[in-house]
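Lecture 7, part B: from sequences to assemblies.

Below are the input chains for today's worked example.
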Amino acid sequence: MITLYTFGPAFGVPDPSPYCMKALMLLKMAGLEFRTQPANLRKAPKGKAPYMDDNGTRIADSTFIRFHLENTYGIDFDAGLSDTERAVAWTFEKLCEDNLYWAIVYSRWLNDENFNAGPVQFFQAVPALMRPFVVFMVRRQVRRDLKGQGFGRHSEAEIGALATRAIDHLAAYLGDKPYLMGDKPCGADAIVLATVASLLCDIFVSPMLGATAKHNNLVAYRDRLMVEYFPD
Ligand SMILES: N[C@@H](CCC(=O)N[C@@H](CS)C(=O)NCC(=O)O)C(=O)O
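Predicted structure of the full complex, as C-alpha cells:
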C-alpha cells in the first residue's frame, strides 16, 4: 500500500504545497493505487512534505518520489520525449521548483495581508495564548530560509520582476500545446500545473497573479489539467 503524506486541500487547490500537489499528480499519472494521510513534519524523514510510504519504504522529497515510482514500477513519466525534450522538461520543472516556488513562498508568508488570508490558518490548532509566539517563530524561520535561498534579499518588486520573466517564458513555451511538451503529459507537467494553480490562487495579492492570469494559455492549461487530474 502506498501512502502519500500531504497537507490536504487549502486555498482552493488540492494542496497548498506545490510539491505535494506534484506528488499527487505523479501518482495519478502512474495509475497506482494510493491513499493520503496528513503530514507530520516532526516525523517526516527530511522534515518536509511530501513524503511517502511504499510498503514500509519511506521516501522523502517529490523528486525522489518520482525516481522511486520510475525505478520500482518501471514508469517513464517522459515516455516518448527525445533526450533534448527531456532536458527542456527538467529545466522547466526546476524553474518552477527552485525559482517560482520561492516567489510564491515570499508572497504568501512575508506579505502580512497574504499571510492573514492564507497561511495563518495552519496555526488554528495551536493554543490561542501561544499562537502569536509560534506564528512569529515560524515566519522568522521562513524569512531566514528565503534569505539563505536568496530571494529574501530582494524587494517585493524585484521578486515580481523575476517571477514575471519566468511566467512569461513558461507561457511562451507552452504556446497552444495541451501539455508542456506536446500532446501527452510528462513528468514536468505535475509541478508546472501545481505552480500555475498556486500562482493563480486569487486569495493572494501579488504581481504574480496578474502576470499569470494575463496568459490565457496558462489559465486554460490550469483549468484543463485540473479537470483531468483533480476533478474533485
Ligand atoms: N524539495 C522538496 C521540497 C518540499 C518542501 O519544501 N515542502 C515544504 C512545503 S511546500 C515543507 O514541507 N515545508 C516545511 C518546513 O520547511 O518546515 C520536494 O520536492 O518535496
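Note for the exam: The two ends are 22 Å apart (CA to CA). Keep this in mind when comparing with the next example.
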